[in-house]
């Protein structure tokens, strides 16, 4: 197995044993980015000289016998929605073209503190709005398992980079499924932490009460490692929760005796592809073989979650994106205009169609006369969705089901129909509304050799249990060891 | 729920988004379809249900009231579309050919 196909844990072991240097690892991944980028289009920005400089600094620390961080010399790709000091951050939007942040996001600070090598910034749906990464203003990322298909979205660049072995680790963000959905479609692991577990400082906000940062990895072990690095309290984010972060890697391989798995009937209804259902049910049987007990649970309001999400998220987006007015940074229209017209022209020119659509929905549902009928109604449904999960977790330890209704679809197949695209997130959005953690792990392939994801959901701040449950299945299967021929 | 073109035009104005007539027409069709979809929520009886704006019981968090270093002026202005000395240059509100500082 070549360097680029290895997991972060394997790369750390190789470097610790002096069988590879950080510089050699960095060079291998930079070569993979160069070679595979014409097909995958995962990255927005890569500064090769800076990557080599970071890797050399890690090698120098090791040579000097200085203590090294948990990710020493491991390249990490970062979604272009997270601020990186001195490196352009675009949100894959024309309106932020040329923006260079003067500070690092909290999660990027944490990666640097653990001696990770920031490999570059990855492509995404503009402002994290989308389910296919076709909404980027710059390029459409592709699925490494079949480059005629989408990698999922909105963190499609980050998912394609890991699945396509251009990076061993990456960061994405999940507002309605934007880590779990592309993880499932690309055959890798992706976790959406509990809301508040990971600081959102330096994350360019889409929907503040839903957004969470989380990692993409080849396997659950790397996922646990990344969660140890990026989790924890940050006083600069008022929604960051000050609660201890467990040492996820220490307990990961402890199986959970008598694991009770809640299987919601609402996740296995109309619209679910038969091959996806077959793989997920086979995964549940594997758990049963290992001593878990399947429990029927109901999430009666989950059929309404998608509709509630598509009111709450645009409402928050319309407010958050009001800051992009062309005055202090980003795109400003070249047309000569007064102040108000400059705002409108700059935003009209700078935002793409999906972002404009969501700003319009959000503005409408918050406008006078409609707020109670739409926004407040959706917030009431949000409470009912959360209550469903609270009641389900009285009967089970973890809820499981499909991550997505289908495997990866063809590029362009749904891009003209926003509603069809929104349905890609039908099993993931309720987790964000409730604020609970969720993870997608590989659980099989379709006959067309497209990956299928199994979603695990747990009560708030129970990531340790969730990762252990995920590892139980992974230890019994080899889906996570497979790599696509790109 | 179908939106009229005038309603779409009004929302675009509120949102400070300049669009072509063709874009407004496309938006009318797409927003109407999305609002039709979300109207399924009206089937649910939510009487007596408290709205949930946030998944966690978050409350305002105050920092200590202590001075801290600010972003240097040069850093703050680095991304400005136009500058006038140590200020952001912005379009004039009233008739003028010259930008004004902000």
From TrEMBL, chain A:
EC number from the UniProt entry: 6.3.5.7
Mitochondrion keyword on record: no
Cellular component annotations (GO), alphabetically ordered: glutamyl-tRNA(Gln) amidotransferase complex
Active site per database record: 79 (charge relay system), 154 (charge relay system), 178 (acyl-ester intermediate)
Keyword annotations: ATP-binding, Ligase, Nucleotide-binding, Protein biosynthesis, Transferase
Pfam families associated with the record: Amidase
Signal peptide residues on this chain, from the entry's feature table: none
Domain Amidase per the UniProt entry, residue ranges: 24-467
Matching InterPro entries: Amidase (IPR000120), Amidase_CS (IPR020556), Amidase_dom (IPR023631), AS_sf (IPR036928), GatA (IPR004412)
Catalytic activity annotation: L-glutamyl-tRNA(Gln) + L-glutamine + ATP + H2O = L-glutaminyl-tRNA(Gln) + L-glutamate + ADP + phosphate + H(+)
Example of a GO biological process term: translation
The protein's name: Glutamyl-tRNA(Gln) amidotransferase subunit A
Automatic annotation (TrEMBL), chain B:
UniProt xrefs under NCBIfam families: gatC (TIGR00135)
Annotated SUPFAM superfamilies: Glu-tRNAGln amidotransferase C subunit
Key words, A-Z: ATP-binding, Ligase, Nucleotide-binding, Protein biosynthesis, Transferase
HAMAP family associated with the record: GatC
GO biological process terms, semicolon-separated: glutaminyl-tRNAGln biosynthesis via transamidation; regulation of translational fidelity; translation
Stated name of the protein: Aspartyl/glutamyl-tRNA(Asn/Gln) amidotransferase subunit C
Source organism per UniProt: Urbifossiella limnaea
Record has Ligase as a keyword: yes
Catalytic activity: L-glutamyl-tRNA(Gln) + L-glutamine + ATP + H2O = L-glutaminyl-tRNA(Gln) + L-glutamate + ADP + phosphate + H(+); L-aspartyl-tRNA(Asn) + L-glutamine + ATP + H2O = L-asparaginyl-tRNA(Asn) + L-glutamate + ADP + phosphate + 2 H(+)
Pfam families found in the cross-reference section: GatC
Protein purpose: Allows the formation of correctly charged Asn-tRNA(Asn) or Gln-tRNA(Gln) through the transamidation of misacylated Asp-tRNA(Asn) or Glu-tRNA(Gln) in organisms which lack either or both of asparaginyl-tRNA or glutaminyl-tRNA synthetases. The reaction takes place in the presence of glutamine and ATP through an activated phospho-Asp-tRNA(Asn) or phospho-Glu-tRNA(Gln).
Family: Belongs to the GatC family.
């Amino acid at each position: 197995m070549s360097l680029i196909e290895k997991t972060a844990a394997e790369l750390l072991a190789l470097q610790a044993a002096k069988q590879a240097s950080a510089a050699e690892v960095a060079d291998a991944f930079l070569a993979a980015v160069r070679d595979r980028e014409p097909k995958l289009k995962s990255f927005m920005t890569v500064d090769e000289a800076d990557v080599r400089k970071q890797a050399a600094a890690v090698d120098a620390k090791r040579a000097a016998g200085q203590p090294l961080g948990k990710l020493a010399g491991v390249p990490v790709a970062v979604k272009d929605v997270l601020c990186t000091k001195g490196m352009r951050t675009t949100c894959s939007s024309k309106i932020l073209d040329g923006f260079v942040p003067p500070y690092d996001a909290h999660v990027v600070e944490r990666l640097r503190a653990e001696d990770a090598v920031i490999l570059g910034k990855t492509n995404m749906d503009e402002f994290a709005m989308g389910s296919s990464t076709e909404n980027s203003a710059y390029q459409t990322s592709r699925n490494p398992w079949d480059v005629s298909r989408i990698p999922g979205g909105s963190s499609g660049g980050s998912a394609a980079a890991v699945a396509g072995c251009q990076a061993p680790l990456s960061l994405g963000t999940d507002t309605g499924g934007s880590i779990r959905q592309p993880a499932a479609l690309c055959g890798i692991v992706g976790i959406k932490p509990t809301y508040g577990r990971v600081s959102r400082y330096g994350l360019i906000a889409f929907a503040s009460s839903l957004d969470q940062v989380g990692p993409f990895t080849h396997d659950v072990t790397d996922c646990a490692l990344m969660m140890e690095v990026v989790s924890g309290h940050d006083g600069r984010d008022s929604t960051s929760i000050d609660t201890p972060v467990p040492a996820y890697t220490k307990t990961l391989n402890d199986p959970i005796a008598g694991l009770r798995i809640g299987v919601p009937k609402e996740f296995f209804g109309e619209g679910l592809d038969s091959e996806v259902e077959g793989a997920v049910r086979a995964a549940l049987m594997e758990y049963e073989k290992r001593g878990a007990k399947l429990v029927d649970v109901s999430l009666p309001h989950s059929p309404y979650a998608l509709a509630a999400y598509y009111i709450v998220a645009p409402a928050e987006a319309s407010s958050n994106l009001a800051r992009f007015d062309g005055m202090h940074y980003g795109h400003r229209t070249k047309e000569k205009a007064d102040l108000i017209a400059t705002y409108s022209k700059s935003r009209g020119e700078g935002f793409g169609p999906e972002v404009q659509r969501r700003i319009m929905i959000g503005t409408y549902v918050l406008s006078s006369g409609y707020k109670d009928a739409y926004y407040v109604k959706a917030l009431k449904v949000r409470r009912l969705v959360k209550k469903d999960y609270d009641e389900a977790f009285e009967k089970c330890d973890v809820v499981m089901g499909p991550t997505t209704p289908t495997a990866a679809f063809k590029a362009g197949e749904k891009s003209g129909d926003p509603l069809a695209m929104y349905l890609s997130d039908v099993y993931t959005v309720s987790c964000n509304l409730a604020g609970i953690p969720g993870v997608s792990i590989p659980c099989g392939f379709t006959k067309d050799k497209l990956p299928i994801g199994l979603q695990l959901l747990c009560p708030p701040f129970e990531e340790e249990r969730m990762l252990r449950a995920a590892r139980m299945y992974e230890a019994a299967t080899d889906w996570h060891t497979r790599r696509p021929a790109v | 729920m179908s939106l009229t073109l005038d309603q779409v035009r009004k929302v675009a104005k509120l949102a400070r988004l300049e669009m072509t007539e063709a874009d407004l027409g496309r938006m009318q069709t797409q927003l109407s379809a999305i609002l039709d979809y979300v109207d399924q929520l009206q089937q649910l009886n939510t009487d007596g249900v408290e709205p949930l704006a946030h998944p966690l019981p978050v409350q305002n968090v105050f920092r200590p009231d202590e001075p801290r270093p600010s972003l240097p002026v040069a850093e703050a202005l680095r991304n400005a579309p136009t500058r006038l000395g140590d200020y952001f240059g912005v379009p004039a509100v009233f008739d003028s050919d010259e930008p004004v500082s902000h």
